[in-house]
Amino acid sequence: MLLDGAPIESSKVGCNHHIMPASSDPHYEIRDAVRALCAQFPAEYFRNVDAEQAYPEEFVRALTRSGWLAALVPEEYGGSGLGLTEASVILEEINRAGGNSGVCHGQMYNMGTLLRHGSEAQKRLYLPLIATGELRLQSMAVTEPATGTDTTQLKTMAVLRGDRYIINGQKVWISRVLHSDLMLLLARTTPLEAVRKRSEGMSIFIVDLREALGKGLTTRPIANMVNHETSELFFDNLEVSVENRIGEEGQGFRYLLDGLNAERALIAAECVGDGRWFIDKVTQYASERIVFNRPIGQNQGVQFPIARAHVNVEAASLMRFEACTLFDAHKPCGAEANMAKLLAADASWEAANVCLQFHGGFGFAREFDIERKFRETRLYQVAPVSTNLILSYIAEHVLGLPRSF
After folding, report:
1. Packing angle between helix 370-378 and helix 43-51, nearest 10 degrees?
2. Are strands 164-175 and 294-295 parallel, antiparallel or unpaired?
3. pTM
4. What span, in angstroms and rounded, lies between the C-alpha atoms of 173 and 169?
């Protein structure tokens, strides 16, 4: 699939102190092309979408037409066949341009579970249509109200009857259901008390939302502080064909974990993009805003927090690339992916606070877009995994400290 977009000069996208010269940046062609596409959707577009609590359908369609959301789909299935490194640059640049990759990043990486563990028939059926955008696989249903991140305790059950599973249960904080055709669902196929290990007995299913909604599946949208379409799901005897189960029965949790490293690295890239957007914004403002007859950026009390935020964003970016490089080389990258997500989420949040603080009252004005991006980047302190759980993972699995829970 071809990737569209004509290169544009870096001067047209604000400050360029984060970007290596084209001659030394191996990803400059991707960056320029994504920036060119994003330039067609100025700040006013995203500002209006946010104010209306709407979905940026035109923007997502443009990304789809250009092939960016099919970056990780192999060429044999109609995609671009790029690596996680290139995919991370795409999402970074969307956020760097003032957009929010969270509205569509699921279309890029959710298909990884299908690609790695689905049957050849399933891949031939779904992946070409996902690559073109004719089918959207933007949603994955894992989290439940009573279990949160303790996934092995989930209560949603899928009971096999003949050639169909009957599914009952509840999910919460499930993103983009209303803008997706397909959804991945994790459910128990063996009761917890009947398995040897608590991570066993769960399976992953492809749910066709076009058929399921109103026929065993109901949704309740959850209003939230970010324009992030998310819902509570209720399963009442939903029937799903056995042909829609991905891989072996009972191995769903292992399949889920297999895709989390990619998700962590890509979310880290989005946070890097956010951080660079905030640094660009506040650097320009601090250079131009005159108070007491001098630019406020001349004061070290303003300079130092901005400089520190910049340093931390750049360090997080390096860890992102380390995680992606290992992933693309099919090497273990759990520690690196988690550290990248932690560092990038912290760095973008620090940059957001610096940007808001030095804009003063203007930072709260919608027309400056800071308050919107401020809300958007705050999400990644919590989702898709909280920073505390990452620290727990590092303590136990990297440092060898006793398990805390």
Report:
1. 70
2. unpaired
3. 0.93
4. 14
